[in-house]
Design brief:
This protein has 2 domains: 3-119 and 283-312, Medium-chain alcohol dehydrogenases, catalytic domain (Quinone Oxidoreductase, Chain A, domain 1, Alpha-Beta Complex), CATH 3.90.180.10; 122-255, NAD(P)-binding Rossmann-like Domain (Rossmann fold, 3-Layer(aba) Sandwich). Strand 12 (199-202), helix 6 (206-215) and strand 13 (222-225) form a beta-alpha-beta unit. 30% of the residues lie in helices and 24% in strands. The chain is of the alpha/beta class. The strands form 3 sheets. Strands 3, 5, 6, 7, 8, 15 and 16 form a 7-stranded mixed sheet that branches. The protein is built from 10 helices and 16 strands. The radius of gyration is 19 Å and the shape is globular. It has helices spanning 42-48, 114-117, 120-134, 151-162, 176-181, 206-215, 237-243, 253-259, 261-276, 293-301, and strands at 3-6, 15-18, 30-40, 60-61, 65-73, 85-89, 97-101, 106-107, 142-145, 166-170, 186-188, 199-202, 222-225, 247-250, 286-289, 309-312. The structure holds NADP nicotinamide-adenine-dinucleotide phosphate. The site of NADP nicotinamide-adenine-dinucleotide phosphate has 28 residues, from helix 1, helix 3 and helix 4. This is Enoyl reductase (ER) domain-containing protein.
Length: 313
């Protein structure tokens, strides 16, 4: 099968199209998917550079989010069934076929294409987790969403507005209109007024991290940290004691699924309700051919993209 293989830790330039990758076989509890759309995530960029924690060693078939049709199931799988369309995560998504755990596969909502369902878990559920169980957002509060034009960021802006928040989004200047069109009340270029946000969604790190910490209200403000796109930075006990009396909360969706399955089940129930209510809407990703995957990842790394990107095998 055709697939994109990462051959080094030198970045997207060493992501290569191969035509002879073996079609994987589903093991017990797994399904085999004929991939129709693979989601591109910032974590893919990090993996090409070997900076994603516990990521695979090159060479490996890249990608970990896909939607498509179930074409075979492993032993013990009762659902989904062959012929169903699902979206989910697993290794080797940038390929014509991939396997994923049956238990983690989510049905593509009826009336949606596979491509429109990309991002349901990695973007919408991540944003939901950051806002609700971890960020404890209440109506009327002010939320600062860093990288608001990105895949997770756009979902977060829509959700925060839905939950009655005042939303401030940050993004590169060329992306401000996108963030405004999602309903953000203010859009900024990675600056923020100190001490004004009840909740900060922080995925950027680097210089933006200090802005995020300063933006949170003293004593009650929460900062949910779920990404390091702009680089690793530190916060000290002295900071928290004397300078920034705030709540810093870490989020990794994979860890949440494994260690807090009850919270994940609540998030999935809320996601279904949001879909039914028309809050979570079909995605409109920018699509690339599988062969152009290296270009898509390079553009994401260079901050030249808005919203979700997908690869078509
Ligand atoms: N913890 C989890 O479970 C989890 C799950 C999903 C995603 N994430 C994280 O959430 C973040 C968003 O993921 P995504 O896939 O939706 O990506 P994305 O937001 O579509 O892309 C990253 C965006 O971050 C902004 N950015 C700011 N500084 C940057 C820098 N130095 N280098 C590159 N980009 C920079 C860019 O937007 P501007 O040009 O507007 O600045 C860029 O478009 C990532 O940090 C990702 O690792 C975490």
């Amino acid at each position: 099968m055709r697939a994109l293989r990462q051959d080094s830790a030198n970045g997207p330039e060493d992501l290569h199209l191969v035509a002879d990758a073996p079609v994987p076989a589903p093991r017990p509890g797994e399904i085999l998917l004929k991939v129709t759309a693979a989601g591109v995530n910032f974590a893919d960029v990090m993996q090409t550079r070997g900076t994603y924690e516990d990521g695979p060693e090159a060479p490996y078939i890249a990608g970990f989010e896909a939607a498509g049709e179930v074409v075979a199931v492993g032993d013990g799988v009762t659902a989904p069934a062959v012929g169903d369309h699902v979206v989910g995560t697993g290794g080797g998504a940038f390929a014509e076929y991939m396997v994923m755990r049956a238990a983690g596969a989510v049905p593509v909502p009826s009336g949606w294409s596979d491509e429109q369902a990309i991002g349901l878990i990695l973007n919408w559920v991540t944003a939901l987790a950051a806002l609700k169980p971890l960020g404890r957002l209440a109506p009327g509060e002010t939320v600062l969403v860093q990288a608001a034009a990105g895949g997770v960021g756009q979902a977060a802006v829509r959700l925060a507005k839905h939950y009655g928040a005042t939303v401030i989004g940050t993004a590169s200047p060329g992306k401000h209109d996108v963030v405004r069109s999602l309903g953000a009340d203010r859009v900024l270029d990675y600056g923020a007024d100190p001490g004004t946000a009840d909740l900060v969604l922080e995925s950027v790190g680097g210089a933006a991290f200090a802005v995020s910490l300063a933006a949170a209200k003293r004593v009650t403000g929460r900062v949910v940290v779920y990404g390091v796109a702009g680089g690793e930075v530190a916060i000290t006990n002295r900071d928290l004691n004397f300078r920034r009396q705030i709540h810093v909360i870490g989020l990794h969706l994979g860890v949440l699924i494994e260690h807090a399955p009850a919270i994940f089940a609540e998030l999935m129930a809320e996601l279904r309700a949001l879909i039914a209510a028309g809050v979570c809407v079909p995605g409109t990703p920018t699509a690339y051919d599988l062969a152009d995957g290296p270009k898509a990842l390079a553009e994401l790394e260079a901050r030249a993209t808005s919203g979700k990107l997908v690869l078509r095998p």
